[in-house]
Amino acid sequence: MGMKDPRVDAYIEESADFARPILTHLRDVVHEACPEVEETIKWGFPHFMYKWILCSMASFQQHCALGFWKGSLIVEGDESRSEEAMGQFGRIQSLEDLPPEDTLVAYIKRAMELNEKGIQPKKKKAARADFEMPDDFETALREQSGVLDAFEAMPPSHRREYLEWITSAKREDTRLRRIAKAVAQISDGKSLHWKYQ
Questions:
Q1: CA–CA separation, 195 and 168 (whole Å)
Q2: Beta strand pairing status for 53-59 and 45-49?
Q3: Do residues 87 and 65 touch, judged by C-beta distance below 8 A?
Q4: Burial class (CB within 10 angstroms; exposed 0-12, middle 13-18, buried 19+) of 38
């Protein structure tokens, strides 16, 4: 049997007039689709739990939002709307902005199934910035025999750390100190953060 949380009642009651019927409807649909659902407040707004987070709803000054925790595996083709507001359905300002109830129920059932199977969305890897070798750093590496080769033999992540560290220096004297330290460490076969490895 599902559990309602009095904090969700309070959240709905404290929401703007336009939001109350939207939030009440969403809550009712979630409980109808998943009778075992449990409610809670996380990060300041209502969440619905079934073996993990199913979905959440929130109200703001002029709109509401509905989001599925594993939305990329549940709601297809709504990427453009998700940029408008939190969740996958854009800015919800009235009940008419919601998908039909049977569609919402299907989404909730899909979220339940994913949670039962423990399926997680694939994490998108953040694109890493490419750092070009600064001329002054390359010159410093070439001045000592074998240091440039040692640098190029390092794993890409270690090379990237050095390049980012050097190019992020705001002052010229800081940059020169960093280059000198980098050359000394690389000649000893050390990564930038070798002390913490």
A1: 21
A2: antiparallel
A3: yes
A4: middle
Report pLDDT digits (tens) over 128-181: 556 788 899 999 999 988 888 989 888 888 888 999 999 988 999 999 999 999
Q: Which residues does 191 contact at the CB level (< 8 Å), separation at least 6? A: 154, 158, 161, 185, 197
CA distance 126 to 124: 6
Return the percent helix, strand and coil in the chain, to nearest 5.
50, 10, 40
Domain over 6-117 is classified CATH 3.40.50.1010: no
Whole-model pTM?
A: 0.61
Per-domain boundaries in the chain = 6-117, 135-196
> Are 64 and 73 in contact, with CB atoms under 8 Å apart?
no
d(CA 36, CA 115): 13
Residue 109, pLDDT score: 96
Percent share of the chain, pLDDT over 70: 89
